[in-house]
Specification:
The radius of gyration is 10 Å and the shape is globular. The protein has helices at 11-23, 33-37, and strands spanning 27-28, 45-46. With 50 residues, the protein is mainly alpha-helical. It has one domain (3-46). The protein has two helices and two strands. 10% of the residues are buried.
Amino acid sequence: MARKKGIQGSNTDFLICAISSRHEMPILTTDKDFTNFQSVFPVLLHVPRG
């Protein structure tokens, strides 16, 4: 599904998204890839303050 939309990620990243979505828990990250994943997966992001 993500690949069809031109979004690539590692298996580990997709596993993190799946667990986050299933348990309705935000992902704490500074990785910009997870912002792209939001267009495909219903994940919440918790971005730390700079």
